[in-house]
Amino acid sequence: MPDSKERYGTVSKWFHWLMGGLIIWQFLKLGDRISEGEHWIGQTLVPWHVSIGALLMVLIVLRIFWASGQLKQRPLHDPATAFVVKAGHLALYVGMLLLPITGLLTMIGNGYGLKVFGVQLVAKGPEIDWVATLGSAHSPLAWIMVFLVIGHIGMALLHHFVKRDDVLRRML
């Protein structure tokens, strides 16, 4: 089912919820920063961080192509807030694209190589300072993305429970 003026379609919903779940999983990596990874999350879920990031990079590219083909069918936004809504979604898309790219730059720039789901895609090698420097944007971008996602969830809940409109139901 494609997107319509009333609801998002099946493919859009799958992209939204699958990527949302994977992004929340990725945020568990921030727990390493807080507790040095000495907990069950750091030992069981975080080792998948690079692989899930690579998967998210593929998914965001596919999602951008899908979404660009659905623009005319997308639900309309309240004209009073349309600019803010579009800016917020654009920021989320930019974050979803830049995070895996900067993560990749971090891995390669620091000489770690790239191993995705057990397959070595880029061999370990020498450190490349300028690539690592670009990759150093990964952590600050992750924190910005946390706030964007919290804002996104907060606004969806505000629409559902306070404004009591159809915004959240469009994606359910």
| H-E order | HHHHHEEHH
Give the number of DSSP strands. 2
Strand order of the largest sheet: 1-2
Name of the CATH first level: Mainly Alpha
Low-confidence stretches: none
Summarize the biggest pleated sheet.
2 strands, antiparallel
Overall outline: elongated
The tally of helices reads 7
**CATH topology descriptor:** Fumarate Reductase Cytochrome B subunit
pLDDT averaged residue by residue: 90
Our estimate of the beta-strand percent is: under 5%
Measured on Cα atoms, how large is the radius of gyration? Answer: 18 Å
CATH architecture: Up-down Bundle
Description:
There is one protein chain. This protein has helices spanning 10-27, 30-35, 40-44, 49-69, 82-109, 129-135, 138-163, and strands at residues 114-116, 119-122. It has a two-stranded antiparallel sheet. Helix 1 runs antiparallel to helix 4, helix 5 (82-109) packs antiparallel against helix 6 and helix 5 packs antiparallel against helix 7 (138-163). The two termini are 14 Å apart. It has one domain: Fumarate Reductase Cytochrome B subunit. The protein is built from seven helices and two strands. The protein is mainly alpha-helical and 172 residues long. The longest helix has 28 residues, at 82-109.
